[in-house]
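2.7 Reproducibility. Because tokenized structures are sensitive to small changes in the input, we list the exact sequence used for Transportin 2, including any N-terminal residues retained from the expression construct. No trimming or masking was applied before prediction.
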Amino acid sequence: IFVLTRLKSEDEPTRSLSGLILKNNVKAHYQSFPQPVAEFIKQECLNNIGDASSLIRATIGILITTIASKGELQMWPELLPQLCNLLNSEDYNTCEGRRGAFGALQKICEDSSELLDSDALNRPLNVMIPKFLQFFKHCSPKIRSHAIACVNQFIMDRAQALMENIDTFIEHLFALAVDEDPEVRKNVCRALVMLLEVRIDRLIPHMHSIIQYMLQRTQDSDENVALEACEFWLTLAEQPICKEVLTSHLVQLIPILVNGMKYSEIDIILLKGDVEEDEAIPDSEQDIKPRFHKSRTVTLQHEEERPQDPDDTEDEDDDDTLSDWNLRKCSAAALDVLANVFREELLPHLLPLLKELLFHPEWVIKESGILVLGAIAEGCMQGMVPYLPELIPHLIQCLSDKKALVRSIACWTLSRYAHWVVSQPPDMYLKPLMTELLKRILDSNKRVQEAACSAFATLEEEACTELVPYLSFILDTLVFAFGKYQHKNLLILYDAIGTLADSVGHHLNQPEYIQKLMPPLIQKWNELKDEDKDLFPLLECLSSVATALQSGFLPYCEPVYQRCVTLVQKTLAQAMMYNQHPEQYEAPDKDFMIVALDLLSGLAEGLGCHVEQLVARSNIMTLLFQCMQDTMPEVRQSSFALLGDLTKACFVHVKPCIAEFMPILGTNLNPEFISVCNNATWAIGEICMQMGAEMQPYVQMVLNNLVEIINRPNTPKTLLENTAITIGRLGFVCPQEVAPMLQQFIRPWCTSLRNIRDNEEKDSAFRGICVMIGVNPGGVVQVWGGHPRASVGSWGPSLTPVAN
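Resulting structure tokens (single pass, no recycling of outputs):
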């Protein structure tokens, strides 16, 4: 602190560094500072917040806020009054002090907004907010900017002191609308965007003027201001009044958003847009985003619907490596959400622009047109259909453009129209699109490889078995990419292969295909160490492949199975050591265990009864008993999925454990953890079908929870469906125990299973209901008052005989 505040002879960077070292010490050890030392540091900070150097002021500001964040706001009663007093002083030196004080106050407002609005500190905001508002008119732009930024911290929480001054605040914002300072304009835009979300009632009378203002600011010469203003359209699109207030402005807004979607010169430099071939350059580690595995969730298939994970529907971003949010991305996102609000009404404003952009000789403009086309795909699909027979071939042509950034955006946009492509005769668009995308998967540019792989995965999900005739060609390309790809794209390639397996299923189980696909996958499998996180996507991929290949996976299953068991065992052992001696051992990364459990599920599902010998020779049931009791929900979720799959595949090994497993399953019927509860429910249903009447001792452990879940408002559909199936199955094997509760669940039970496709699970559940109605017909008559047969008979023609 002495070097920072008193040693003025030292250069500023050294003084600042000493302050930052002190800040780190405060962060780590402040509670153990002797009281006089802590007091001295706090006093020195307040005495020197007005240092002549902006670097030192900023450092002291950081130090003050770090101390404040250590719970010291309550213990430092003079801090806020002194900082607020500094704001009042007039002489030049404390004008620097005023800026320092404002900088510190802004950071405190950011870090402690809730505390400042609480009784714990006697609501200092009642004084602070009016004071900040006074400084909106200050002659220094830096201070005006700080003042708005401070108040902005309290908009989203609707701080009482701000709500009481809301009209003054809005009036002051309007007065600053055309401020010459970009930082001030940016903070004004940010305030208006937040007010749109929390106090739209106060903005509605001025909405026309605000929209006009935001149209100007979205074109601001300062990109940071333009980006902040562009957020306004994203937020407005979520408001019910959007259509009413924005329709007349679309003619101005759409060209502005489209213009914002062009790459800026700095974007092109950052993206190395002039580098066309980079496939031989290894990836640096920071290129590779951390991957998080999503645990397995058991779902049922609906009528007229392909299986799809609800979490897998978001699109990959079009220019991922520019991961910072920028004007291009914000403009594209705004156009996307507005297309979902206005639908076809947007097209008269867009189509004339699109025609010009898509065929423009300058690549940057053409590229932005392709992005526009992708952004409106979801919202304007119906209106775009007449133009797609001309546009899709043009986009397929763009896949071989000489500019890599054009090729990559064309991949993304085509993936957004994949659903339409697949709905047409395959030779018209699917075949040419697939052929070109496969060429792009082998592109010499890494960005294009990545975009093509992601687009191809989307196409696979849409086309499913339509791809079967081309499997040989597809596998040749994907396997060739194994030898070509650098680290990052290899991870995306695993995803494309896994999605292919999910999409074509058992059609992959041909000796010719297995011979192409398995050797490179097993080679990678052998190269990777147990601690390597690249195992995650590879294990996910193998899980899909094992499920698809079924018996075709048998030659590879033993080493894969053993390694998964080892990964689970190692992780459990590490967790145990960490729990006993946290100071000596690191906490394990449980994702390794979760991915391994999910691959074991894939093996059990794919290999069926063939998995029995592997289970017999391992201690997986003991490990599963531990995993089912893990503190991490995702571990339990994957454990119950595996338990259900092993129950179906080799119940002989599960049965001896049922007495231990059932109480754990019962306690996990807690809908707070939706996916855990869902998988536990499903596993119970599978166990019922194997146990038969022997399930009787366990019915009471689970029945009440299941009935409670099915009657719960706002329960997700998947959980309701699995719960209904399991209740039906429990009733099928133990009708005397379950039938007395019939009237408590029959109505939601029927609603839940209305749209489920006929299958083994549905069949057993309906048989269960029929048996229960036989035992307790009164339970249904009380609910419907008429003969129950009409209701049961309406549950699907295939089950009418059961009802009869």
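The two ends are 87 Å apart (CA to CA).
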